[in-house]
Amino acid sequence: MADVGMTAMTGPRGAKPRKTLSGRNIMLYGTLLVVCVYYLLPLWVMVMTSLKGMPEVRIGNIFAPPVEVTFQPWVKAWAEACTGLNCDGLSRGFWNSVLITVPSVIVSIAIASVNGYALINWKFKGSDVFFTILIFGSFIPYQIMLYPIVILLREMGIYGTLWGLIIVHTIFGMPILTLLFRNYFSAIPEELFKAARVDGAGFWGIYFRIMLPMSLPIFVVALILQVTGIWNDFLFGVVFTKPDLYPMTVQLNNIVNSVQGVKEYNVNMAATVLTGLVPLIVYFVSGKLFVRGIAAGAVKG
Amino acid sequence: MVNSIEVKDLTLNFGSVSVLKNMNLDVAEGEFVVLLGPSGCGKSTLLNCLAGLLDITDGQIWIKGKNVTWSEPSERGIGMVFQSYALYPQMTVRGNLSFGLKNAKVPQAEIDKRIARAAEILQIQPLLDRKPAALSGGQRQRVAIGRALVRDVDVFLFDEPLSNLDAKLRSELRVEIKRLHNQLGNTMVYVTHDQIEALTLADRIAVMKGGVIQQLAAPLEIYNRPSNLFVAGFLGSPSMNFLKGRTVDGGKAFQFGSTKIDLAGYEGGAVLERDDAILGVRPEHITVSTTPVSGPSIPAEVEIDEHLGADSLLWLKAEGANMSVRVPVEGRLPAGTKVHLGLDIPKASLFDAKTEQRI
Fold it and tell me: N or C: which end of chain B has fewer CB within 10 A?
């Protein structure tokens, strides 16, 4: 061994050792830790409170874990809490939200992706003007359009129905989704599109057989944007539907703000977590794809 | 014989910008025409018009005796090969080859037959079930050519097909395309900015600039008798030497600085006496001699001598102008040597400096 050591080059070799407890690392991970705690604390309080009974809630130590774990607040929030005359909890709102979100997401993404595809690959006279107007639409505050849309829906005879709300969500999703898809499709080489045309594929043939299979990431992004956006929507839900058809967010608000009787904080917390669960799950399942797709859609444009 | 492609008065404007101007081009059946020019000259645009991927502003396009000016790309009887290969990434090679045929509702048995034939010609049988991402650049371009091949069309359009390949593959595939042309006998229109590709592949070259065909002729004709200054300067590396001077003695001689060059043997039109003329001589059409030669010669001094392997380049100063001369390796001379240049007048080109046209 000594002999080998003599002939080999002396001095350090290989990767440079790094101190784990350097000042830089302490700063970095310390900051990250503080930020994590800051964002997780409200969730902690909510979940803990929702697992306590009312007597324990009244003690007031909101950070403490429950002494006696109870799921009664969750059951009540889901199935028994009263808003007005309905006493079937959030479940009604949940199913309303599902009935609103699923068709809105599907229809808006279907239309917007075709829009983006047509605007990039099948430019027509005035297509740029059309696109500009569409984008301009996303800068107009919603409040300005609320009442006109109410009148419009009333004249169409669908005011207060789920379909009215679905149409509204679809239209309001159009600018940002079209922009998203247009930018993504613009990054797909034009020669691919030309080759498909020489190969005799038409508008729909190229869309379904060439563009769609190459665009999964951006569809995931659009899906997440729309699911969370529409699920979390409150304004349109409260304006364009009737109490029977209120989405989950509106119903949550009504439960939390009901003034009769005791304020049941544990039930309110459980109801809030339940309402936020869907977007949360969507983020967890597709977080990685989301970031990748956002980056892909944002670079060009 | 009917022409394979006829372009009649083709004009294309993008807004107020005129990209192609009143263009006429006839391509004979089985002919290999190369569109050559610097970027932005409209050569790829012209090819896209032929393919039907761009709507033209005015004029007509005929392919195989049929007016296809308003036809869809797939109805024109053309196959196209792109610079970036443009293979469908989610399909296998087989899927790529059969995509167009399936769109055209060709029976499956016929599809299989044509794919087998194309794969054999291009030697891509082992690759048929791979995705494009698993292929090298050269293999991808073969598949792209195969996609044009299976369409069983008369006209092939190539849009800078070799530009994305490295130098070695490029020369290999160049030879292969030439072989393919000899074997199939299709009409081919080929866009490139590479003069070597143009000179080696073409039956005729169309040199383009500013949306206008400057000269359309056989490669050697273009190389030896360029019709104007642009064509003369664009082809050849290093480019042709341009000597500015005037013609004297009733057009029998060219006055370059203090040297009078006899134009006897010049192959061109009536030279006449012109105050502004340019004599173009290619580097390989000049002889260098260290001793004074009989007859008129240009005195010059060697500035730089470049060794190219097979031969050498001498960069000289003559009458205040820079010139390059190609000499054999043994003819190399050190910098500072005083020499005399003799010009091969029958192979030279004379241009009018004002119109820039060949005289």
Answer: N
B266 and B216 in one domain? no
Q: Report the residue of B68, B90, B91, B189 to disrupt the A interface, i.e. the one with the largest count of A CBs within 10 Å.
A: B90
Q: Is A200 on the interface with B (CB under 8 A)?
A: yes
Pair of tokens at residue A148: 């006109």
CATH of the domain at B261: 2.40.50.140
| pLDDT tens sequence across A236-258 | 999 999 888 899 999 999 888 87
Q: How confident is the model at residue A298 (pLDDT cuts 50, 70, 90)?
A: very low
A191–B48 CB contact, under 8 Å: no
| Distance in Å, alpha carbon of B216 to nearest chain A alpha carbon | 27
Instruction: Give residue B208's domain range.
Output: 5-234
8 Å CB contact of A198 and B73: yes
Q: Answer yes or no: do B189 and B46 share one domain.
A: yes
Mutate to test the interface with A, among B14, B45, B47, B53 (most CBs of A within 10 A): B53
Tell me what ipTM this predicted complex has: 0.86
* Residue contact A198–B103, C-beta within 8 A: no
Whether the Cβ atoms of residue B206 and residue B231 lie closer than 8 Å to each other: no
Q: Which domains does chain A have, with CATH numbers?
A: 18-70 (no CATH), 91-299 (1.10.3720.10)
Model pLDDT for residues B168-189, shown as the tens digit of each residue = 889 999 999 999 999 999 999 9
pLDDT at residue A200 in the model: 92
